[in-house]
């Protein structure tokens, strides 16, 4: 055992490796065979674990498919809620997106292929993104000086969800900085229009 490494930390690292192996195997199978055609047993075999192990880590196939996406949404909600007083919601969203788009992660690449191959998962992703952005509507409403239930904040929140979804769905050859700049200019202009000021 390495210095400073406890039995508990070794156990947690083992769990993380198994979870990652299951997720990677599932993403590959969902992309190659399709979400509906892939079973939990298929995922278990590809990850070299038992079907029971898969269900200990994930309640359903959909939970596996959205494992990394849901984690990203949690970090987005936290970024919006914990932003500095002088930082706008659009600025916080920009920084979060820049961090996400800079990741050159194998799971992210596999996730892109999985969603491209499964329209039903893309539809669920759009719905989950909208839900997450509604969670962050407080930040947008605060910037606009309105209630989160007002038309302006709801409109801005819907636009933000659409922009983030579009960026997530961008082809691999898209210039991330150019796409991000255009998306944020669009959102900033929309927020300014809603607030009745020039962008």
Which short descriptors sum up this protein?
single chain; 199 residues; mainly alpha; Arc Repressor Mutant, subunit A; Tetracycline Repressor, domain 2; 2 domains; 11 helices; elongated
- Name the CATH class of the largest domain: Mainly Alpha
Using only C-alpha atoms, the radius of gyration works out to: 19 Å
CATH evolutionary superfamily of the largest domain: Tetracycline Repressor, domain 2
Structural class: mainly alpha
Head-to-tail CA distance between termini: 58 Å
Q: Give a count of the beta strands, DSSP E runs of length 2 or more.
A: 0
Strand content: under 5%
Low-confidence stretches: none
Which bin fits the share of residues in helices?
over 70%
Major sheet summary line = none
Secondary-structure element order, as H and E?
HHHHHHHHHHH
The coarse overall form would be elongated
**Mean pLDDT across residues:** 87
Question: What is the fold named in CATH at topology level of the largest domain?
Answer: Tetracycline Repressor, domain 2
CATH hierarchy: architecture of the largest domain: Orthogonal Bundle
């Amino acid at each position: 055992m390495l210095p400073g490494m406890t039995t508990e930390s070794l156990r947690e690292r083992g769990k993380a490796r198994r979870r990652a192996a299951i997720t990677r195997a599932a993403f590959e199978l969902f992309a190659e065979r399709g979400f509906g055609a892939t079973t939990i047993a298929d995922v278990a075999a590809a990850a070299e674990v038992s079907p029971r192990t898969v269900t200990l880590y994930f309640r359903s196939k959909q939970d596996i498919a959205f494992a990394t996406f849901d984690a990203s949404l949690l970090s987005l909600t936290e970024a919006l809620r914990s932003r500095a007083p002088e930082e706008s919601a659009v600025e916080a969203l920009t920084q979060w997106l820049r961090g996400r788009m800079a990741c050159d992660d194998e799971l992210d690449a596999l996730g892109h292929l999985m969603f491209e191959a499964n329209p039903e998962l893309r539809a669920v992703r759009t719905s989950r993104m909208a839900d997450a952005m509604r969670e962050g509507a407080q930040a947008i409403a605060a910037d606009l000086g309105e209630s989160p239930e007002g038309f302006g904040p709801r409109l801005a929140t819907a636009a933000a969800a659409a922009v983030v979804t579009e960026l997530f769905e961008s082809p691999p050859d898209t210039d991330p900085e150019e796409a991000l700049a255009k998306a944020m200019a669009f959102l900033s202009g929309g927020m300014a229009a809603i607030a009745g000021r020039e962008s």
